[in-house]
Write a structure and sequence with these properties.
The chain has 366 residues and is an alpha+beta fold. It has 2 domains: 184 residues, no CATH class; 146 residues, Protein Transport Mog1p, Chain A. It has 11 helices and 12 strands. Strands 5, 6, 7, 8, 9, 10, 11 and 12 form an 8-stranded antiparallel β-sheet that branches. A two-stranded antiparallel sheet has the order 1-2. It has a two-stranded antiparallel sheet with strand order 3-4. A hairpin with a 5-residue loop joins strand 6 and strand 7. Helix 1 packs across helix 2 and helix 1 crosses helix 5. The termini are far apart.
């Protein structure tokens, strides 16, 4: 449909504030979901980088507060912007306008051909590069200023020159007010969701009470861990703790009642050694450690799956009661993984049969 002369401005002369307002609404609606998807992709494809950027670790908080924060998060920002560009192109191809462009009456048409997904995708990618500077700090600010000046002078943005015409309806005062309300509402909504998500970072400081069913001892477990029981023949017990925030780490806690005479840590480790070698690539030998106040032995290994999996196995024996933890992490060493070491300490603190009842933990039920 061709718009009449009194309802549309000249080609490429939509005021900068209208274009900015439309883009602001679209990004407020789409960038946050795109960021979640980018985090999901990073957590699966680049676990080490994702752990550095996303996990609630004190060192990461320090990085967030440092001047280099934007550079540190740049890969995630770039991927989120690219995903947003693809979604915007798809919406434009299907509906002919994004929510922001519909509110401000902005039309984007190719100078030649139809408004296909390919056309809109190429345009959005050009906006990503020439309009947002690929997400690079400072560069993006410069590119946005340059494009704003071109549009203010009645010139097409560089990414539209020779490719697309941008037309917009003359807005009534009522529509201008509604557009301003939409900008403010979507911006506030996106900010609140972001703050709410980032506000969950201290989760690793929140705890719940977990009771060892064998010894009836209680310990405090960080809420980043979700626990489930693994079927086992009585009286053996096995539990699996998975990180509820990243799914990049897992701890298995097991109990086995030895059928023979009392054994020690070294004997039990020797029994487990063939099983460990069968399933993992052993890195070192069993070494004595103290975990949760208990003398134990520990060995490190890696997976054969090529997914940067680090494994740490710890065993401790109390008479005929044999205990073990197996910690699995992706992308980082176990010692550098948020909460994994603390969880192992907490679990082993419940195994000593002569341990006095833990009291005043100041924890809540899960």
């Amino acid at each position: 449909m061709v718009e009449s002369a009194h309802t549309a401005t000249t080609v490429n002369s939509v005021p900068p504030w209208q274009r900015w307002g439309a883009r602001m609404i679209d990004f407020s609606l789409l960038y946050l979901p795109s960021n979640y998807l980018a985090e999901l992709l990073f957590s699966r494809l680049f676990p080490s980088a994702y752990l550095q950027m996303a996990l609630p670790d004190a060192r990461i908080v320090a990085i967030y507060l440092a001047p280099g924060m934007l550079w540190y998060l740049l890969p995630l920002v770039m991927v989120a912007l690219l995903i947003t560009s693809v979604v915007l192109a798809l919406v434009m191809a299907v509906f002919g306008a994004t929510p922001g462009k519909a509110i401000f009456g902005i039309k984007v048409r190719p100078l030649n051909g139809n408004g296909t997904f390919r056309f809109h995708l190429r345009r959005e990618l050009a906006v990503f590069a020439a309009g947002f500077g690929c997400g690079f700090p400072l560069i993006s600010a410069l590119t946005m200023v340059v494009q704003r000046q071109r549009v203010a002078l009645g010139l097409p943005a560089s990414y539209d020159e020779g490719r697309a015409s941008i037309t917009g309806m003359r807005l009534t005062p009522v529509r201008e007010v509604l557009g301003a309300i939409a900008i403010i509402a979507t911006a506030i909504g996106a900010t609140m969701l972001t703050v709410s998500e980032r506000g969950n970072a201290p989760w690793h400081l929140q705890t719940y009470a977990w009771q060892n069913p064998v010894t009836s001892k209680i310990t405090a477990i960080s809420r980043i861990w979700q626990v489930k029981s693994i079927p086992a023949a009585p009286p053996n017990r096995y539990y699996e703790f998975r990180s509820s925030r990243s799914l990049l780490s897992m701890v298995q806690f097991g109990y086995e009642r030895w059928s023979g005479n009392n054994i020690d840590n070294a004997s039990y480790a020797a029994i487990l050694q063939p099983v460990v070698q069968q399933h993992f690539k052993v890195i070192d030998d069993w070494k004595p450690v103290t975990v949760g106040g208990i003398s134990a032995l520990r060995i490190h290994a890696s997976g054969f799956d090529g997914l940067s999996t680090a494994i740490e196995i710890t065993v401790a024996v109390q008479g005929r009661d044999c205990w073990q933890t197996s910690v699995y992490t992706r992308g980082k060493e176990v010692d550098d993984t948020t909460g994994a070491t603390d969880l192992a300490e907490a679990l082993f603190s419940t195994i000593a049969t002569d341990q006095s009842e833990i009291s005043a933990l100041n924890v809540t039920s899960p």
